[in-house]
Amino acid sequence: MTRARQDRVLSLLVREGDWVTAATLADVLGVTPRSVRSYVTAINARVEGIAVESGPLGYRPGPHVADAQQAGGDAGTPRDRLHTVIRELLDSADGFDVYEMSDELHVSSATLDADLARVRGLLGGTELTLERSASRARLVGSESAQRRLLSKLVHDEMDAGSFDLVALRRTLGDNAAGADTLALFKTDLVASLGAAGWFVNEFGIADVVTHFAIAADRVSRGRSLDAVAATPTADQQEVAAVISNLAEKHLGVRLGDGDLQHLARLVLTRVVAPGSRPPSGEPAASIDQRVEHAVREVVQQAASEFLVDIAHDDFIERLALHTENLLHRSKEQAWSRNPLTRSLKSTFPMIFEVAVYIANGVHERLGIPLFDDEVAYIAMHIGGRLERMRRADQHLTATIVCPGFFELHELLRSSVDRSLGQTIEVVGVETRVDPDWAAMGTDLVLTTIDPPISADRIVRIQPFLTESDVEHVQAAVARIRRTKRLARLRSEIEGYFVPSAFVRGVDAAPGAEGVIRELGDKLVSEGVIDNDYVERAIDRERLSSTAFTDALAVPHALGMTATRTAIAIGIADPSMKWGDTRVQVVALVAFSESDREAFQTVFEQLVEVFSERDSVQRILRRASDFSGFLDELVAVIDG
Prior knowledge:
PTS-regulatory domain, PRD; 639 residues; 25 helices; 55% helix; alpha/beta; 5 domains; PTS_EIIA_type-2_dom; four-stranded parallel beta sheet
């Protein structure tokens, strides 16, 4: 039983916020319901009280779930023992004696050898090597590389990139700065930067606090960074002075020039808005023309490929500034975590897909590696732009039915506009007691009198609008919007499925790439795609996992080169590993150039259907063949 799986159970329950069955949790984790029960027992043993409630409907978060998430693990668990081994390797240049360490940890030397093998597995990309000479083991590499390893451990400890000061100290050890101290440092840093005129990105500040804690811990052990030869800029000097003062104030640690330069660069490339406040007497920094040209080119291609309105100078400039910072961070392998990555991917799959396309284009032109958290930041830029560009005609139209009594209908319309003007547009007012209900062609009808018919679009409200009325209208708006979205999917999707490309019980042994090839062969035999498309779908999968929900993966190639848009379906029973999660349905989608406009509808609405756990389980239970799958999918869409 691993703490990692226990934490995954906690994460799923907190995110769901309601009852989840043991079978559902087991599918997501790839274990048995019996294992889930043992995980819940172990979770509840962490705290005095109930962290996870059990009942006939399954499990849900209890009153002490937050305490369980922050509780330290048993020091004897493999993960905590691994952290202890790594800290010991990092603290001493000479490493340690394997037999002495195994005695200290109360494990066999064979167990410690297995732990050291796991350490080697974590060293990829850190420029560190683990050397073993007789009974001694030690890490060889620069101080910067050793800190990157510590940073990697910290982020692995924090679920989905969330900022957890308790987990930070758990990784660094009991001698590291406490959560309260680091929280005060963070507060003062944000206040100091804000007072100096910087716009602070709170998502990035978590990474800076992490690196600050690591720097303070290493400096206290006599392991400082050497200063770089380059002369620091005025901005770096200003930020370094702030950090130096806060380090002495909160920790009593005097940071050297190397650490101050390093932390100042982190602040300037991931915490403050680039170019938002040029230093006094200096012009705003210009964008590297190579970066600006690369970003402009790939944004214009993305706008054309996905039919999204993002090819504007102001958007390109902001994204180029972000990319320039990303380029600086890549040189130091100082990546930013994004706590919104998972939700952005599952809630806005099309926006995330555009971000992957742009990130890949930037990678090809500038050589910047791709990570999902960095892609998510690009998705936030895109989402922000599209949100600002949303047209008013996206509002639902409404008719108010309010029989005339002095100016009552005018007062009601004014109240509706004031309370609901962000979501609906009133285009008509009926003041008769016997209006022609059938003639009202608006999306919604808000009526103060009882209608002769019942329909989802008709909402009964009071003549004087109440908070309850507003809530009822907003619920109706949500239902109608969802119905409209799924209606578009319903009208198009049936023609895209290929009956011969339905596989119940895909072979999960070869992994995601194997399943893509298995489903791809089905579409190749139908003449929809060629083998090159299959390989490009695999290349796209390597860029970023296409598991957009806990149940569904939608692999596809970036180019729309299929002869027609078609979907091959594979069902994994039980669930299979896909990227860093598990899925039960794989929809290999081949898009054609002629169906470019269908991309967003099919892509986003298919993901939406499979985001609802009850719908997924209903489809999977009854989808013994293609006909059953399609019938259940259509039934779910139709509600």
